[in-house]
Amino acid sequence: MIKDIKSDAESRMKKSIEHLTSDYASLRAGRANPAMVEKLMVNYYGEPTPLNQLANIHAPEARLLVIQPWDKSSMEEIEKAILKSDLGITPNNDGNVIRLAIPALTEESRRDLVKVIKKRGEEAKVAIRNIRREANDMIKEIEKEKVISEDQSKKALEDIQKLTDKYINDIDDIIAVKEKDIMEV
User: Fold this and answer.
1) In the predicted model, is pLDDT for residue 130 greater than 90?
2) Which helix (H) or strand (E) holds 99?
3) Is residue 34 predicted with pLDDT exceeding 90?
4) pTM surpassing 0.90?
5) What is the pLDDT of residues 155-180, one digit of tens each?
6) CB-count burial class (<10 Å; 0-12, 13-18, 19+) for 16
7) Residues with Cβ < 8 Å from 34, sequence gap 6 or more?
8) What single string gives the DSSP state of each residue in 102-145?
9) Which CATH number fits domain 35-101: 2.60.40.10, 3.40.50.300, 3.30.1360.40, 2.170.120.30?
């Protein structure tokens, strides 16, 4: 029973880390990265559809993204989605492909991006702590029902805290790496 609670908490914490990592991949760091636009929702025949399901996205150069829609009729909607997004990039449509020139980051935009990184990192930490709280509540509940002893409960709570500390430290490391990446000129 305790083992199930621990493994569930750990798998949920891992998912929080994975979500943070994929979230960071979509942030613009001055270099073109297809992940920046892959999850962009495009209105495709009335249905919101992720861009990566409508087009081939690649980065032929460090500061250029090329989006090649499989259905040319969707180009206008793809352009609208890019303009509505928080990317701050104007698409260049030549009728066959959409090009996105990624501008170099200014010092101010780098600092703003670091703030976003820290905020999202803090949100991931909150998610980890919420998972810890839920696991602790379950352990206390089964202790109250006399399914486990007080000693087993204490040991399990310590283990959950160690897991939490490990994943919080992992988040701090991820934030530091991303911050260094952003601030590099």
Assistant:
1) yes
2) strand 98-101
3) no
4) no
5) 999 999 999 999 999 999 999 998 88
6) buried
7) 52, 57, 58, 59, 65
8) -PPPPHHHHHHHHHHHHHHHHHHHHHHHHHHHHHHHHHHHHHHT
9) 3.30.1360.40
- For residues 90 and 98, the answer to whether their CB atoms sit within 8 Å is no
CA–CA separation, 65 and 77 (whole Å): 17
Options 3.20.20.20, 3.90.950.10, 2.60.40.1120, 1.10.132.20; CATH for 2-25+106-183 is 1.10.132.20
Angle of helix 150-183 versus helix 107-144 axis, rounded to 10: 170
Average pLDDT rounded to a whole number, residues 120-144? 94
| Residue given tokens 């430290």 in the structure block | 169
Q: Are 54 and 71 in contact (CB under 8 A)?
A: yes
